[in-house]
Amino acid sequence: MQPLVSIITPMYNNESVIEETINSVIRQTYSNWELILVDDASSDQTINTSKALRKIDNRIKLFNHLQNKGAAEARNLGTKMAKGKYIAFLDADDLWKENKLELQVNVLSSDKADVCFGSYELINSNSQSLNKKVQALKTLTHKKLLKANYIGNLTGIYNCEKTGKIYTKDLKKRQDWLLWLEVLNKSKKPALGISDTIAYYRITQGSLSSNKINLIKHNFNVYKKGLGFSTIKSIFYLLQFLHEHLLVKKKHIKAIS
Q: pLDDT tens for residues 49-63?
């Protein structure tokens, strides 16, 4: 019997992309999953599109907030409702390759790690390739993850039977980084990376990845507010982050020929 994977997707006004995202889950070669969609009070057709797809595939579960509460609350509701041995995340505008779950469950079933992540390709708002790939590390420790976020949230999956369910702190941004730091802290094992591309990350005009100044501010908040570090300690880690992000991590972004 394949272990159940719970996939958590928060949604907010994603009517233009949500069908493509959900279909990338439906097409998975690994079949024992539940897709937990949490609509955060969308004002467009996101929830209606999701309802239509739920009728086609009963592995899709749909919950909704009556008032907008933010992505953290939506992810946390999804985590609370999850029934799987493994928990994975897929934002409403990103996509998975068909063998994503199969590859990762095989890695996690070996019991050498409680966390698995992978490489991913960058696409634009029209799902066209930007000919760039973010290469995953082979292994990732909590100490290394403190220096920069090396886990693309759309590729991360963890064994919640080993770590317990991990809930997201309500920071404005970078909640995913904080979550994976907590997961690795609870695991005590390095995460294992898959070198193959297993997902597609959508770059939009408002993406945090495209705004470097805000990136610095939000990373400082991870250390200061999220992890509770002192101001001096937060500045120290922020300087480490800048070194890692500008001189080390960028080497993992590769052109696709």
A: 999 999 999 999 999
